[in-house]
Amino acid sequence: MARHGPNIADQLALHARQRPTKPAIIHRDTVITYRQLDLLVRQRASLLMDLGVQPGEVVGVALKDTPEHLLMLYAVARAGAVVLPVDCRWQAEEKQRVAAHFGARRIIVEPGDVFAGALCVAADAAWLEQARTVAVREEFPRGDRGFCLSLSSGTTGRPKGPLLSHAQFMHRFFTHYADLGFGSREVYINATPLYFGGGRAFSVSSLYVGATVVLCAPPYKVEELASEITRTGATITFLVPTLLRRILQAEPAGMAPFRRLRTLIASGSPLTAEERGRIRSEVCPNFIEYYSSTEGGGVTVLSAQEQAAYPASVGRPVFGVDLQIVDEQDRPLPPGEVGRIRYHGATVAEGFYRDDEASKEAFRAGFFYPGDLGYVNEEGYLFLCGRAKDMIIRGGVNIYPLEIESILMTHPDVLEAAVVGVPSKEFDEEVAAFVLSRKPGDAAALTAWCKERLAPYKVPKYFHFVSDFERNSAGKIVKRNLMATLSNA
Fold first, then answer.
1. The predicted structure's pLDDT at residue 271
2. Helix ranges (DSSP H) in 86-221
3. I need a labelling partner for 239 at 20 to 30 A (CA). Which of 22, 186, 193, 257 fits?
4. Does residue 354 or residue 381 have the better pLDDT?
5. For 336, phi and psi rounded to 5 degrees?
6. Beta-carbon neighbour count of residue 408 at 10 Å?
7. Cβ(87)–Cβ(195) under 8 Å?
8. 399 and 457 in contact (C-beta within 8 Å)?
9. What is the pLDDT of residues 163-188, one digit of tens each?
10. 140 — phi, psi (to 5°)?
11. Are 33 and 176 in contact (CB under 8 A)?
């Protein structure tokens, strides 16, 4: 049964009346005003309903990073249906698996992409003409049947994603406005895929509040992103650490446009203290780090000022979130003790859609367990120690890969590092490090570097040098596959 409450698309009609000529979406030479945006969304919602889409049904969106993608996110919501994000870059089998698991009734796809047969509706010239000429409905479904199936990053194994309500997404928007610097006066340049949780959420929340969204779809060169920031007068953006590291490697002149940003946000994986300092001084002074998850939304935020005082922390909890560190029996731990992170609030999902087994593990007693380990200090700052599943137990001693990765990445030759545990007859597990280096790999030099900064048992026994890392849709290194390469060696 649908719950009472607003639909996120309601706000577009208000913007269409109050700021009709303001640019809502900018993509290259295309500018869509708020008056146009409201009409385009209502046209597509009407067309979906004409195609038989019922309130509460799941509609996949498998589009490139274009205005049509953003229009369809709001149109599915306007029609009372639920958005299923599908990465158009996936292989056909991956798309089919996700669509089948979540029960998609229709999937909006790029022309020629027919991975699910008759379920696929191409957003081609014919679709655009139908949307232009459709009889636009005056009334749309009311009630909160859910807005989006927020998939966990990656598609390996069983698909997982909670069904998030409109209300839960709106509460996430409020944290964007309260803690991250988003607002109606901002020009947000989206430089990550719209399929990715951050890119999607920040773009949708910017339109909800009446800001302007600039689409700058990857891949691009640093200079191209900088040029688009200048051209559109962008004031705020969100970048994953991989992109930020590319910016730090660019020529100083290429960084100048980034310094005009009011706010730069990073999320996805931790940055080193040195990287944070360089970003603040060379890229954008108001640099914010944001720790979040697709299932629960924002967890903590660390401002530029706090980064200098607490360089190893990911910040304090965002607005409205109750964060706790607990042991294996879910008992809260005192400050300074490492345990499992859990949190709850109005932004947090209630469980995975169509997956009771996975829900029991990650959602308990109203809390979401993101699978990360960490501790809080006396002042409430959170310090991450890595993923619980990645923890290495060597001779009965817990080793947290994130600590070793951070030390390796302070070496001047190391661009990125990933640490995993490998089987050992003597100690059960040994430490192995995969390194992306600026220069030809020198295991002896890295061993010496680690010995000066880490306890002997934490120093990697094995070093493997890579030309690049395989990453999931969130830009995170797929450690499981790194371990597979070792077992196959």
1. 83
2. 92-102, 125-133, 166-175, 197-209
3. 22
4. 381
5. 95, -15
6. 26
7. yes
8. yes
9. 999 999 999 999 999 999 999 999 99
10. -125, 160
11. no
**Cα separation, 166 vs 5, whole angstroms:** 8
CA–CA separation, 19 and 33 (whole Å): 9
Percent of the chain's residues with pLDDT above 90: 76
- Start-to-end C-alpha separation, the chain: 53
Q: Which two tokens stand for residue 270?
A: 């931790």
Tell me the DSSP string of 224-263. Answer: HHHHHHHHHT--EEEE-HHHHHHHHHS-HHHHGGGGG-SE
DSSP conformation class of 163: E
Measured CA to CA, the distance from residue 164 to residue 345 in angstroms comes to 13
d(CA 110, CA 63): 6
d(CA 159, CA 177): 31
For 317, other C-beta atoms within 10 Å of its C-beta total 22
For 228, phi and psi rounded to 5 degrees?
A: -70, -35
Residue at token pair 């990765």: 405
Query: Rounded to whole angstroms, how far apart are CA atoms 101 and 159?
Result: 7
The share of the chain scoring above pLDDT 70, in percent, equals 97
Instruction: Tell me the pLDDT tens digit for each residue of 80-134.
Output: 999 999 999 888 988 998 999 999 999 999 999 989 899 999 999 999 999 999 9
pLDDT tens-digit map of 258-306: 999 999 999 877 788 888 999 999 999 999 999 999 899 999 999 999 9
Rounded CA-CA distance 456/17 in Å is 66
Q: Say if residue 29 is exposed, middle or buried (CB neighbours under 10 Å; 0-12, 13-18, 19+).
A: exposed
* Inter-residue contact 205 to 180 (CB < 8 Å): no
Task: List pLDDT tens digits, range 212-262.
Answer: 999 998 889 999 999 999 999 999 999 988 889 889 988 888 788 999 999
**Is the previous residue joined to 219 through a cis bond, with omega within 30 degrees of 0?**
yes
pLDDT of residue 90: 87
H/E stretch holding 356 reads helix 356-362
C-alpha to C-alpha distances, 174 to 203, 320, 321, nearest whole angstrom: 14, 9, 12
- Work out whether the CA dihedral 232, 233, 237, 239 comes out positive or negative: positive
CA dist., res. 376 & res. 321, Å (int): 14
Q: How far apart, in whole angstroms, are the C-alpha atoms of residue 44 and residue 78?
A: 9
Token duo for residue 3: 């719950």
Q: Which two tokens stand for residue 360?
A: 């029991």
Q: Decide: 172 and 205 in contact? Cβ < 8 Å.
A: yes
Separation CA 318–CA 344 (nearest Å): 11
Residues near 244 by beta carbon (within 8 Å), at least 6 away in sequence: 266, 271, 275, 279, 283
